[in-house]
Amino acid sequence: MAKTPPPQRVLIFPLPLQGPVNSMLKLAELLCLGGLHVTFLVTDHIDARLRRYSNVQTRFQSYPGFRLQAISDGLPENHPRGDKFLEVFESMKVYTKPLFKELLQSGGGDRISCVIADGGLGFPLDVAEDVGIPLFIVRTISAACLWVFFCLPQLIQSGELPFTGDDDLDVRVKSVPGMERFLRRRDLPSFCRSGNVADPNIELYKGESTNNPRAAGLILNTFEELESPILSHMCGVCPNIYTIGPLHAHLKSKLAATGASLPDFSNSLWEEDRFCLVWLDSQPHKSVLYVSFGSLATVTRDQLMEFWHGLVNSGQRFLWVIRHDSVAGESRVPMELLQGSEERGFIVDWAPQEEVLAHPAVGGFLTHSGWNSTLESVYAGVPMICWPYFLDQQVNSRLVEEEWKLGFDMKDTCDRSVIEETVRNLMEVRKDEFQRNAAQMASSAKTSLGDGGSSFSHLERLIQDIKAKSV
Ligand code: UDP
Protein backbone atom coordinates (compact mmCIF):
# COMPACT_ATOMS: atom_id res chain seq x y z
CA MET A 1 0.00 0.00 0.00
CA ALA A 2 1.28 3.48 -0.87
CA LYS A 3 2.55 5.46 2.15
CA THR A 4 0.59 8.71 2.91
CA PRO A 5 2.93 11.64 2.28
CA PRO A 6 3.75 13.76 5.39
CA PRO A 7 1.93 17.12 5.72
CA GLN A 8 3.49 19.96 3.76
CA ARG A 9 6.11 21.93 5.66
CA VAL A 10 5.87 25.73 5.64
CA LEU A 11 8.85 27.84 6.61
CA ILE A 12 7.86 31.06 8.40
CA PHE A 13 10.47 33.84 8.52
CA PRO A 14 9.51 36.93 10.58
CA LEU A 15 11.34 40.24 10.91
CA PRO A 16 13.64 39.98 13.94
CA LEU A 17 11.51 42.28 16.13
CA GLN A 18 9.11 41.65 19.01
CA GLY A 19 5.88 42.68 17.22
CA PRO A 20 6.36 40.56 14.07
CA VAL A 21 7.73 37.57 16.03
CA ASN A 22 4.73 37.78 18.31
CA SER A 23 2.10 37.76 15.60
CA MET A 24 3.86 35.27 13.33
CA LEU A 25 4.18 32.73 16.14
CA LYS A 26 0.41 32.93 16.37
CA LEU A 27 0.17 32.38 12.62
CA ALA A 28 2.53 29.40 13.02
CA GLU A 29 0.22 27.84 15.57
CA LEU A 30 -2.87 28.50 13.42
CA LEU A 31 -1.19 26.68 10.53
CA CYS A 32 -0.22 23.76 12.80
CA LEU A 33 -3.88 23.55 13.83
CA GLY A 34 -4.74 23.56 10.11
CA GLY A 35 -2.70 20.39 9.60
CA LEU A 36 0.56 21.85 8.29
CA HIS A 37 4.07 21.35 9.60
CA VAL A 38 5.94 24.57 10.40
CA THR A 39 9.59 25.57 10.63
CA PHE A 40 9.82 28.91 12.44
CA LEU A 41 13.04 30.60 11.38
CA VAL A 42 14.49 33.38 13.54
CA THR A 43 17.86 35.04 13.92
CA ASP A 44 20.23 33.66 16.59
CA HIS A 45 19.58 36.76 18.68
CA ILE A 46 15.79 36.27 18.70
CA ASP A 47 16.21 32.51 19.19
CA ALA A 48 18.23 33.09 22.38
CA ARG A 49 15.61 35.52 23.76
CA LEU A 50 12.69 33.26 22.88
CA ARG A 51 14.36 30.31 24.59
CA ARG A 52 15.12 32.43 27.65
CA TYR A 53 11.90 34.38 28.18
CA SER A 54 9.07 32.77 26.23
CA ASN A 55 7.45 29.39 26.58
CA VAL A 56 7.54 28.63 22.85
CA GLN A 57 9.27 25.29 23.39
CA THR A 58 6.69 23.96 25.86
CA ARG A 59 3.78 25.54 24.06
CA PHE A 60 4.63 23.88 20.75
CA GLN A 61 5.25 20.44 22.26
CA SER A 62 1.65 19.71 21.34
CA TYR A 63 2.56 20.14 17.66
CA PRO A 64 5.11 17.48 16.66
CA GLY A 65 5.52 19.11 13.23
CA PHE A 66 6.78 22.41 14.70
CA ARG A 67 10.48 23.32 14.65
CA LEU A 68 12.18 26.45 15.94
CA GLN A 69 15.26 27.07 13.84
CA ALA A 70 17.93 29.80 14.03
CA ILE A 71 19.97 31.58 11.38
CA SER A 72 22.73 34.18 11.83
CA ASP A 73 22.12 37.87 11.11
CA GLY A 74 25.87 38.30 10.66
CA LEU A 75 26.27 40.80 13.52
CA PRO A 76 28.30 40.41 16.72
CA GLU A 77 26.41 39.33 19.82
CA ASN A 78 26.75 42.71 21.56
CA HIS A 79 25.35 44.77 18.62
CA PRO A 80 22.52 47.09 19.85
CA ARG A 81 19.99 45.61 17.44
CA GLY A 82 16.89 47.24 18.95
CA ASP A 83 18.23 50.78 18.31
CA LYS A 84 19.75 50.08 14.93
CA PHE A 85 17.53 47.67 13.09
CA LEU A 86 18.28 49.17 9.65
CA GLU A 87 21.82 47.89 10.24
CA VAL A 88 20.35 44.49 11.06
CA PHE A 89 18.40 44.44 7.77
CA GLU A 90 21.46 45.53 5.80
CA SER A 91 23.58 42.82 7.37
CA MET A 92 20.90 40.17 6.76
CA LYS A 93 20.71 41.06 3.06
CA VAL A 94 24.41 40.29 2.71
CA TYR A 95 25.07 37.62 5.31
CA THR A 96 21.79 35.80 5.90
CA LYS A 97 20.60 35.64 2.28
CA PRO A 98 23.04 32.89 1.14
CA LEU A 99 22.46 30.93 4.36
CA PHE A 100 18.73 31.17 3.73
CA LYS A 101 19.17 29.85 0.21
CA GLU A 102 21.16 26.88 1.52
CA LEU A 103 18.47 26.21 4.09
CA LEU A 104 15.68 26.25 1.51
CA GLN A 105 17.63 23.85 -0.65
CA SER A 106 18.55 21.47 2.16
CA GLY A 107 15.42 22.10 4.28
CA GLY A 108 17.57 21.67 7.42
CA GLY A 109 16.64 17.98 7.30
CA ASP A 110 13.01 18.56 6.25
CA ARG A 111 11.58 19.33 2.84
CA ILE A 112 10.29 22.90 2.73
CA SER A 113 7.32 23.12 0.39
CA CYS A 114 6.26 26.72 0.91
CA VAL A 115 7.61 29.93 2.53
CA ILE A 116 5.80 32.69 4.41
CA ALA A 117 8.22 35.59 4.91
CA ASP A 118 7.86 39.12 6.20
CA GLY A 119 7.87 41.42 3.18
CA GLY A 120 10.06 43.81 5.17
CA LEU A 121 12.96 41.39 4.77
CA GLY A 122 12.91 41.65 0.98
CA PHE A 123 15.46 38.99 0.01
CA PRO A 124 13.41 35.82 0.80
CA LEU A 125 11.22 36.49 -2.26
CA ASP A 126 14.24 36.56 -4.61
CA VAL A 127 15.66 33.41 -3.02
CA ALA A 128 12.37 31.50 -3.12
CA GLU A 129 11.90 32.42 -6.79
CA ASP A 130 15.44 31.30 -7.45
CA VAL A 131 14.97 27.86 -5.87
CA GLY A 132 11.40 27.46 -7.14
CA ILE A 133 9.47 27.38 -3.86
CA PRO A 134 6.19 29.36 -3.62
CA LEU A 135 6.30 32.29 -1.21
CA PHE A 136 3.52 34.21 0.49
CA ILE A 137 4.40 37.64 1.82
CA VAL A 138 3.16 38.56 5.25
CA ARG A 139 3.08 42.13 6.59
CA THR A 140 2.54 42.85 10.23
CA ILE A 141 1.75 46.52 9.71
CA SER A 142 -1.67 48.02 8.92
CA ALA A 143 -3.07 47.68 5.40
CA ALA A 144 -3.28 51.49 5.43
CA CYS A 145 0.43 51.95 6.02
CA LEU A 146 1.30 49.28 3.47
CA TRP A 147 -0.94 51.09 0.99
CA VAL A 148 1.01 54.30 1.65
CA PHE A 149 4.21 52.35 0.89
CA PHE A 150 2.59 51.14 -2.36
CA CYS A 151 1.85 54.76 -3.25
CA LEU A 152 5.36 56.13 -2.59
CA PRO A 153 6.20 56.26 -6.32
CA GLN A 154 3.04 58.35 -7.00
CA LEU A 155 3.77 60.59 -4.00
CA ILE A 156 7.22 61.32 -5.42
CA GLN A 157 5.94 61.74 -8.98
CA SER A 158 3.24 64.21 -7.92
CA GLY A 159 5.81 66.24 -5.96
CA GLU A 160 4.06 65.59 -2.63
CA LEU A 161 7.28 63.99 -1.43
CA PRO A 162 9.81 64.98 -0.19
CA PHE A 163 9.07 67.51 2.55
CA THR A 164 10.69 68.28 5.87
CA GLY A 165 9.51 68.55 9.46
CA ASP A 166 9.70 72.37 9.08
CA ASP A 167 7.15 72.46 6.22
CA ASP A 168 3.44 72.86 6.93
CA LEU A 169 2.58 69.38 8.16
CA ASP A 170 -1.18 69.93 8.04
CA VAL A 171 -1.29 70.04 4.24
CA ARG A 172 -3.57 67.28 2.87
CA VAL A 173 -2.00 64.45 0.87
CA LYS A 174 -3.78 63.64 -2.41
CA SER A 175 -1.82 60.77 -3.96
CA VAL A 176 -2.96 57.96 -1.67
CA PRO A 177 -6.34 56.84 -3.11
CA GLY A 178 -8.91 56.12 -0.42
CA MET A 179 -7.17 58.28 2.18
CA GLU A 180 -7.54 61.74 0.61
CA ARG A 181 -10.19 62.76 3.14
CA PHE A 182 -8.04 62.51 6.23
CA LEU A 183 -4.37 61.98 5.41
CA ARG A 184 -2.06 64.95 6.12
CA ARG A 185 1.69 65.18 5.66
CA ARG A 186 2.12 64.61 9.40
CA ASP A 187 0.26 61.28 9.10
CA LEU A 188 2.67 59.80 6.57
CA PRO A 189 5.33 57.36 7.83
CA SER A 190 7.91 59.35 9.80
CA PHE A 191 10.71 58.87 7.27
CA CYS A 192 8.73 60.90 4.71
CA ARG A 193 9.77 64.02 6.64
CA SER A 194 13.44 63.54 5.81
CA GLY A 195 13.30 66.05 2.95
CA ASN A 196 15.31 63.61 0.86
CA VAL A 197 13.77 61.48 -1.82
CA ALA A 198 16.83 59.20 -1.70
CA ASP A 199 16.32 58.53 2.03
CA PRO A 200 17.25 54.84 2.64
CA ASN A 201 13.80 54.15 4.09
CA ILE A 202 12.01 55.59 1.04
CA GLU A 203 14.27 53.45 -1.12
CA LEU A 204 13.53 50.40 1.04
CA TYR A 205 9.74 50.71 0.90
CA LYS A 206 9.35 52.00 -2.67
CA GLY A 207 9.62 48.47 -4.02
CA GLU A 208 6.53 47.18 -2.16
CA SER A 209 4.14 47.78 -5.04
CA THR A 210 6.29 45.73 -7.38
CA ASN A 211 7.41 43.01 -4.93
CA ASN A 212 4.06 42.10 -3.39
CA PRO A 213 2.29 41.13 -6.63
CA ARG A 214 5.19 38.73 -7.41
CA ALA A 215 4.35 36.59 -4.37
CA ALA A 216 1.71 33.82 -4.28
CA GLY A 217 -0.34 36.02 -1.96
CA LEU A 218 -0.24 38.74 0.67
CA ILE A 219 -1.18 37.87 4.26
CA LEU A 220 -2.23 40.75 6.50
CA ASN A 221 -2.81 40.90 10.24
CA THR A 222 -5.99 42.93 9.99
CA PHE A 223 -9.68 42.25 9.37
CA GLU A 224 -11.80 43.31 6.43
CA GLU A 225 -14.30 45.36 8.41
CA LEU A 226 -11.52 47.48 9.93
CA GLU A 227 -9.77 48.51 6.74
CA SER A 228 -12.15 47.71 3.89
CA PRO A 229 -11.86 51.02 1.94
CA ILE A 230 -8.07 50.67 1.80
CA LEU A 231 -8.19 46.95 1.04
CA SER A 232 -10.44 47.49 -1.94
CA HIS A 233 -7.84 49.87 -3.43
CA MET A 234 -5.00 47.52 -2.61
CA CYS A 235 -6.71 44.57 -4.31
CA GLY A 236 -6.35 46.42 -7.62
CA VAL A 237 -2.56 46.09 -7.39
CA CYS A 238 -2.26 42.92 -5.40
CA PRO A 239 -5.29 40.70 -6.04
CA ASN A 240 -4.64 37.78 -3.69
CA ILE A 241 -4.94 39.18 -0.16
CA TYR A 242 -5.69 37.18 2.98
CA THR A 243 -6.84 39.31 5.92
CA ILE A 244 -6.70 36.90 8.86
CA GLY A 245 -6.35 39.14 11.91
CA PRO A 246 -6.34 39.99 14.68
CA LEU A 247 -3.99 36.98 14.83
CA HIS A 248 -3.67 36.84 18.63
CA ALA A 249 -7.45 36.58 18.96
CA HIS A 250 -7.87 34.32 15.94
CA LEU A 251 -5.68 31.74 17.63
CA LYS A 252 -7.64 31.96 20.88
CA SER A 253 -10.87 31.54 18.99
CA LYS A 254 -9.61 28.46 17.06
CA LEU A 255 -8.28 26.86 20.24
CA ALA A 256 -11.58 27.47 22.01
CA ALA A 257 -13.40 25.80 19.10
CA THR A 258 -11.16 22.71 19.34
CA GLY A 259 -11.46 22.56 23.13
CA ALA A 260 -7.65 22.25 23.34
CA SER A 261 -6.09 23.02 26.68
CA LEU A 262 -2.57 24.37 26.29
CA PRO A 263 -0.23 26.33 28.57
CA ASP A 264 -0.70 30.12 28.28
CA PHE A 265 1.13 31.59 25.34
CA SER A 266 3.95 33.87 26.38
CA ASN A 267 6.15 34.78 23.44
CA SER A 268 7.76 37.82 25.01
CA LEU A 269 11.38 38.65 24.39
CA TRP A 270 11.46 40.25 27.88
CA GLU A 271 10.49 38.96 31.30
CA GLU A 272 6.86 39.86 32.04
CA ASP A 273 5.97 41.41 35.39
CA ARG A 274 2.75 39.55 36.19
CA PHE A 275 2.30 41.27 39.52
CA CYS A 276 0.68 44.20 37.72
CA LEU A 277 -2.34 41.92 37.09
CA VAL A 278 -2.73 41.52 40.85
CA TRP A 279 -2.56 45.33 41.21
CA LEU A 280 -5.20 45.68 38.47
CA ASP A 281 -7.47 43.26 40.38
CA SER A 282 -7.74 45.85 43.15
CA GLN A 283 -8.66 48.78 40.86
CA PRO A 284 -12.22 49.90 39.95
CA HIS A 285 -13.86 48.93 36.65
CA LYS A 286 -12.39 50.73 33.58
CA SER A 287 -10.50 53.17 35.81
CA VAL A 288 -6.89 52.50 34.75
CA LEU A 289 -5.03 54.01 31.80
CA TYR A 290 -2.47 51.50 30.51
CA VAL A 291 0.62 53.27 29.13
CA SER A 292 3.14 51.52 26.89
CA PHE A 293 5.27 52.55 23.93
CA GLY A 294 6.09 49.02 22.77
CA SER A 295 9.44 47.35 22.39
CA LEU A 296 11.46 49.88 20.37
CA ALA A 297 10.32 53.46 21.03
CA THR A 298 12.47 55.61 23.27
CA VAL A 299 11.70 58.95 24.95
CA THR A 300 14.01 61.75 26.04
CA ARG A 301 14.35 62.55 29.73
CA ASP A 302 12.25 65.70 29.14
CA GLN A 303 9.48 63.74 27.40
CA LEU A 304 9.48 61.20 30.24
CA MET A 305 8.90 64.05 32.70
CA GLU A 306 6.12 65.58 30.54
CA PHE A 307 4.32 62.22 30.51
CA TRP A 308 4.86 61.78 34.24
CA HIS A 309 3.44 65.20 35.14
CA GLY A 310 0.60 64.88 32.63
CA LEU A 311 -0.42 61.48 34.00
CA VAL A 312 -0.12 62.48 37.65
CA ASN A 313 -1.96 65.79 37.13
CA SER A 314 -4.80 64.06 35.27
CA GLY A 315 -5.79 62.44 38.57
CA GLN A 316 -6.37 59.10 36.81
CA ARG A 317 -4.98 55.71 37.77
CA PHE A 318 -2.29 54.38 35.45
CA LEU A 319 -0.17 51.31 34.75
CA TRP A 320 2.96 52.38 32.89
CA VAL A 321 5.48 50.13 31.10
CA ILE A 322 8.89 51.78 31.20
CA ARG A 323 11.50 49.45 29.73
CA HIS A 324 14.92 49.81 31.34
CA ASP A 325 16.31 50.98 27.96
CA SER A 326 13.50 53.36 27.09
CA VAL A 327 15.14 56.69 27.94
CA ALA A 328 17.33 57.77 25.03
CA GLY A 329 20.99 58.16 25.88
CA GLU A 330 20.60 56.79 29.44
CA SER A 331 21.56 53.32 30.60
CA ARG A 332 18.77 53.29 33.20
CA VAL A 333 15.45 55.00 33.83
CA PRO A 334 15.80 57.84 36.37
CA MET A 335 13.11 56.33 38.64
CA GLU A 336 14.02 58.75 41.45
CA LEU A 337 12.32 61.49 39.37
CA LEU A 338 9.06 59.55 39.19
CA GLN A 339 8.06 59.68 42.84
CA GLY A 340 4.85 60.76 44.49
CA SER A 341 1.80 59.07 43.03
CA GLU A 342 2.32 55.52 44.25
CA GLU A 343 -1.29 55.05 45.26
CA ARG A 344 -2.55 55.74 41.72
CA GLY A 345 0.34 54.70 39.50
CA PHE A 346 2.10 51.39 38.94
CA ILE A 347 5.27 51.09 36.85
CA VAL A 348 6.65 47.88 35.36
CA ASP A 349 9.53 47.01 33.04
CA TRP A 350 7.41 44.78 30.75
CA ALA A 351 3.79 43.72 31.07
CA PRO A 352 1.69 40.77 29.82
CA GLN A 353 -0.01 43.25 27.49
CA GLU A 354 -2.81 41.13 26.03
CA GLU A 355 -3.93 40.16 29.53
CA VAL A 356 -3.62 43.74 30.74
CA LEU A 357 -5.80 45.06 27.91
CA ALA A 358 -8.39 42.35 28.56
CA HIS A 359 -8.52 43.21 32.28
CA PRO A 360 -11.84 44.81 33.36
CA ALA A 361 -9.98 47.56 35.31
CA VAL A 362 -8.38 48.94 32.13
CA GLY A 363 -10.35 51.78 30.53
CA GLY A 364 -7.83 53.35 28.17
CA PHE A 365 -4.48 52.82 26.45
CA LEU A 366 -1.84 55.49 25.90
CA THR A 367 0.09 53.83 23.09
CA HIS A 368 2.80 54.46 20.51
CA SER A 369 0.34 52.99 17.95
CA GLY A 370 2.44 49.98 16.97
CA TRP A 371 0.19 47.80 14.84
CA ASN A 372 0.10 44.86 17.27
CA SER A 373 -0.74 47.14 20.17
CA THR A 374 -3.43 48.85 18.10
CA LEU A 375 -5.07 45.56 17.11
CA GLU A 376 -4.83 44.20 20.64
CA SER A 377 -6.58 47.34 21.91
CA VAL A 378 -9.23 47.22 19.17
CA TYR A 379 -10.00 43.60 20.02
CA ALA A 380 -10.12 44.27 23.75
CA GLY A 381 -12.48 47.24 23.16
CA VAL A 382 -10.11 49.71 24.84
CA PRO A 383 -10.10 53.34 23.57
CA MET A 384 -6.70 54.85 22.81
CA ILE A 385 -4.58 57.96 23.11
CA CYS A 386 -1.94 57.72 20.42
CA TRP A 387 1.56 59.09 20.64
CA PRO A 388 3.18 57.60 17.53
CA TYR A 389 6.93 57.23 17.45
CA PHE A 390 7.88 56.23 13.90
CA LEU A 391 7.20 54.37 10.65
CA ASP A 392 3.62 53.02 10.35
CA GLN A 393 2.58 54.46 13.72
CA GLN A 394 1.94 57.93 12.27
CA VAL A 395 -0.64 56.41 9.89
CA ASN A 396 -2.23 54.13 12.51
CA SER A 397 -2.83 56.93 15.00
CA ARG A 398 -4.68 58.97 12.37
CA LEU A 399 -6.98 56.02 11.66
CA VAL A 400 -7.71 55.66 15.39
CA GLU A 401 -8.89 59.26 15.70
CA GLU A 402 -10.34 60.13 12.28
CA GLU A 403 -11.58 56.88 10.76
CA TRP A 404 -12.54 54.70 13.69
CA LYS A 405 -13.27 57.39 16.33
CA LEU A 406 -11.62 55.25 18.99
CA GLY A 407 -9.69 58.00 20.76
CA PHE A 408 -7.20 60.80 20.27
CA ASP A 409 -4.12 61.25 18.13
CA MET A 410 -1.54 63.26 20.09
CA LYS A 411 1.22 63.07 17.49
CA ASP A 412 3.96 65.70 17.44
CA THR A 413 2.97 67.01 20.89
CA CYS A 414 4.54 66.14 24.19
CA ASP A 415 3.33 68.69 26.66
CA ARG A 416 2.19 67.95 30.21
CA SER A 417 -0.96 70.09 30.04
CA VAL A 418 -2.06 68.55 26.72
CA ILE A 419 -1.40 65.06 28.10
CA GLU A 420 -3.34 65.85 31.28
CA GLU A 421 -6.34 67.19 29.34
CA THR A 422 -6.32 64.38 26.75
CA VAL A 423 -6.19 61.71 29.47
CA ARG A 424 -9.12 63.34 31.30
CA ASN A 425 -11.08 63.58 28.05
CA LEU A 426 -10.59 59.89 27.28
CA MET A 427 -11.11 58.56 30.79
CA GLU A 428 -13.87 60.95 32.00
CA VAL A 429 -15.35 63.66 29.77
CA ARG A 430 -15.91 61.59 26.58
CA LYS A 431 -15.61 58.18 28.21
CA ASP A 432 -19.05 56.87 27.24
CA GLU A 433 -18.73 57.83 23.58
CA PHE A 434 -15.32 56.18 23.19
CA GLN A 435 -16.26 53.10 25.19
CA ARG A 436 -19.32 52.66 22.96
CA ASN A 437 -17.33 52.98 19.74
CA ALA A 438 -14.61 50.65 21.03
CA ALA A 439 -17.19 48.03 22.06
CA GLN A 440 -18.72 48.12 18.56
CA MET A 441 -15.37 47.71 16.86
CA ALA A 442 -14.39 44.88 19.21
CA SER A 443 -17.65 43.13 18.39
CA SER A 444 -16.99 43.42 14.67
CA ALA A 445 -13.48 41.96 15.23
CA LYS A 446 -15.05 39.02 17.08
CA THR A 447 -17.57 38.46 14.29
CA SER A 448 -14.76 38.34 11.72
CA LEU A 449 -13.21 35.42 13.64
CA GLY A 450 -16.41 33.43 14.11
CA ASP A 451 -17.57 30.61 11.82
CA GLY A 452 -18.05 32.11 8.32
CA GLY A 453 -16.62 35.51 9.38
CA SER A 454 -14.19 37.34 7.08
CA SER A 455 -10.91 36.46 8.86
CA PHE A 456 -12.13 32.92 9.53
CA SER A 457 -12.86 32.38 5.82
CA HIS A 458 -9.61 33.98 4.65
CA LEU A 459 -7.62 31.66 6.91
CA GLU A 460 -9.45 28.59 5.57
CA ARG A 461 -8.66 29.76 2.03
CA LEU A 462 -5.01 30.44 2.93
CA ILE A 463 -4.54 26.93 4.33
CA GLN A 464 -6.18 25.37 1.24
CA ASP A 465 -4.03 27.51 -1.07
CA ILE A 466 -0.82 26.63 0.78
CA LYS A 467 -1.68 22.95 0.46
CA ALA A 468 -2.52 23.34 -3.23
CA LYS A 469 0.49 25.46 -4.20
CA SER A 470 3.15 23.65 -2.13
CA VAL A 471 5.86 21.94 -4.18
N1 UDP B 1 4.14 44.05 24.58
C1 UDP B 1 4.11 43.27 25.72
N2 UDP B 1 4.39 43.87 26.91
C2 UDP B 1 4.70 45.19 27.01
C3 UDP B 1 4.72 45.98 25.85
C4 UDP B 1 4.42 45.38 24.64
O1 UDP B 1 3.82 42.07 25.66
O2 UDP B 1 4.96 45.63 28.14
C5 UDP B 1 3.84 43.39 23.29
C6 UDP B 1 2.51 43.85 22.74
O3 UDP B 1 1.47 43.03 23.23
C7 UDP B 1 2.70 43.75 21.23
C8 UDP B 1 4.20 43.91 21.04
O4 UDP B 1 4.81 43.78 22.34
O5 UDP B 1 2.30 42.48 20.77
C9 UDP B 1 4.58 45.27 20.52
O6 UDP B 1 4.29 45.32 19.16
P1 UDP B 1 3.83 46.64 18.45
O7 UDP B 1 3.63 46.31 17.02
O8 UDP B 1 2.68 47.24 19.13
O9 UDP B 1 5.02 47.66 18.66
P2 UDP B 1 6.62 47.57 18.44
O10 UDP B 1 7.17 47.01 19.69
O11 UDP B 1 6.87 46.72 17.23
O12 UDP B 1 7.01 49.01 18.25
From TrEMBL:
Keywords of this entry: Glycosyltransferase, Transferase
Protein name, UniProt field: Glycosyltransferase
Enzyme Commission identifier(s): 2.4.1.-
UniProt organism field: Salvia divinorum
This protein's record includes keyword Transferase: yes
Enzyme class: transferase
Claim: Protein transport is one of the keywords in the record: no
Alphabetical list of Gene3D superfamilies matching this protein: Glycogen Phosphorylase B
Taxon lineage: Eukaryota, Viridiplantae, Streptophyta, Embryophyta, Tracheophyta
Protein family membership: Belongs to the UDP-glycosyltransferase family.
Domain of life, per lineage: Eukaryota
GO function term, MF aspect, one: UDP-glucosyltransferase activity
